[in-house]
Structures are given as C-alpha cells and as structure tokens.
Write a structure and sequence with these properties.
The chain is α/β, with parallel strands linked by helices. It contains ten helices and twelve strands. It binds FE3-S4 cluster.
C-alpha cells in the first residue's frame, strides 16, 4: 500500500459570492418562468457545470437575436454594457440581472463620474466582459490600462479617477497605480478589487507552502483559475491545473503525502467532491 494521502481543501474553494448568487437567480428563474432561460455568454467559466445547466434548460447565447420576445435572459455576474440591457428591454425580453454587487459598485462609481470633465481610468483587461460592461457606464473620457507599460506610456493628466477590474491581482494593480501617480497630478483611486478573489489567492498561497502537491481545479477558460495556478506554482510546489477528476494521474503522487486542493470561483462543489473521491481511491489502491 502507498502512504495514505492527506487531502486538504483550501477554505476559499468553490463558488464565490457572486457566482452563488447568479446560480440562485437562475434556479429561481427556472422555477418561476419555466421553459428556457438564456444567458449572454456562458453563465460561469466551467464547461462541466455549463453542460449540466444546459440539461436544465439554461442556454448560453452570443447575441440578443437568439432570444425570443418574452424570453428570459440572465445577465451574468460580470455584468454587461448598458446598451445591451436597453436593447433587450426594447425587444420585450425579461431580464434577470445577476451582475455581482461588487461589479455593480464599479459601474455606479463610473456612472457617477460620467459628466465630469476628467477621465476615468479602468485598470483591467479591455477584452474582459466585466471591463467592457463598466466602460459602458463611463462618459467619453475613458481610458483602459492593462499593465504598467501602458500606464507609463500615457500622456500626463491633471486629474483622473481610477477603478480596478474586480479580479485583478492586487500587486499588479498597485504597480500600475504607482505608474499612474507619476502621470496624473490629482489621482483618485477607488479600490474595487474583490476581497473574495484576494482571500482565495492568499489562502491558495498559504496552502501551497504547506503541501507536497497542489491541484488547482477549474475551467481552462477561467482566468482567475489560471492565475491561482500560477500563484501556487510560484512557491515551487508541484502543481497541476485540472478541469475534472478524470484527468488525475496517480503517478503524480508517488512519494507525496499532503495534497492541497484549490479552485477557481466558478468551480462547483460537486466537482470538488469528485476530485476528493478520486484522490481517496488512489490513496486506498494497492501501490
Ligand atoms: Fe463578484 Fe468577486 Fe465573484 S466580484 S463574481 S464575488 S470574484
């Protein structure tokens, strides 16, 4: 028999608050309105759960043209450009808004400044739906800064306000803010980084330092899971990024005892349970 594996799941694993809320709204929508519920893009970044949702009648669409009049559309936790909400309303589509309250806070802040004569700067990835949605609430004087280099290339400004993509890693955001301070005389920073993401990253880091192997579970299309994997790997512990228990190879654990598990914010509990079960099987199997 191999040495028993000790399995430790990070205290910050599974759905975050915003994803839990979105899933609850979808479940309520299915119960109340029945039929099909549409989501603009995948509701969450987890292919396995998306398949389960499809079986329950939750269908991702890429355009409002795919939603019939009178249909029900869920705005996912990232939020969306307000023009799309207006267009959906104009088409007689029922909207269930699952925009995470933390994202709503950024949208509200930016909206409040939309008539100011100075620019709003969003620190984040301009391709990310959350950033595109927040940008839709800003006035014309909007700048999106993805990294320190872009901040350093900016023309000097007298005044500006900053919001940060909720899932942006804090150390990176702080470097960008430092670079912005050298460009903008009067800079107001609204700290909109989500505490749930930070706690998850810190807990993953702390766990990775105490185990022999880390499993990071989440959709390959999930950028927060990719970042978590990088964080875990950065401490030098062997780590693997997996989507499901089927990918686990027992050979990874030869001579290793303590196995840590962390997950992205869109990883359901049932997937974590199946990873635990697979590890227990490996642990109990004859060597
Ligand atoms: Fe909201 Fe933070 Fe999750 S912004 S969707 S609680 S990662």
């Amino acid at each position: 028999m191999r040495a028993k594996l000790e399995i430790i799941v990070s205290p910050h694993a599974g759905y975050c608050f915003g994803v839990k809320r979105a899933m609850r709204l979808v479940a309520e929508g299915l119960e109340r309105y029945g039929g099909i519920i549409y989501t603009l893009g995948d509701l969450i970044h987890n292919p396995q759960e998306i398949e389960r949702l499809k079986a329950r009648g939750v269908h991702p669409v890429s355009s409002l043209d795919e939603v019939p009049e009178g249909g029900t559309l869920v705005i996912r936790a990232h939020g969306v450009h307000p023009d799309r909400v207006r267009e959906a309303e104009r088409r007689g589509i029922r909207i269930l808004d699952a925009t995470c309250p933390f994202v709503q806070r950024s949208q509200k802040f930016v909206r409040g400044l939309s008539r100011e004569p100075y620019p709003v700067i969003i620190i984040g990835d301009g391709e990310h739906p959350e950033v595109q949605g927040i940008a839709g609430h800003a006035g014309e004087r909007l700048l999106i800064v993805r990294d320190e280099k872009e901040a350093k290339r900016m023309a000097p400004l007298d005044r500006a306000a900053v919001v940060i993509q909720t899932t942006y890693p804090r150390p990176e955001a702080e470097r960008i803010i430092d670079a912005l301070r050298s460009k903008v005389r009067d800079l107001h920073v609204e700290d909109t980084i989500c505490q749930a993401t930070e706690s998850r990253r810190e807990a993953a880091l702390a766990l990775a330092r105490t185990v022999d192997f880390m499993l990071v579970v989440g959709g390959r299309n999930s950028s927060n899971t990719k970042r978590l994997y990088q964080v875990c790997a950065s401490v030098g512990v062997p780590a693997r990024f997996i989507e499901s228990a089927d990918e686990i190879d027992p050979a990874w654990f030869g001579g290793r005892r303590r196995i840590g598990i962390t997950t992205g914010t869109s990883t359901p509990d049932w997937l974590i349970a199946s990873v635990r079960e697979r590890l227990a099987e490996i642990s109990n199997a004859p060597a």
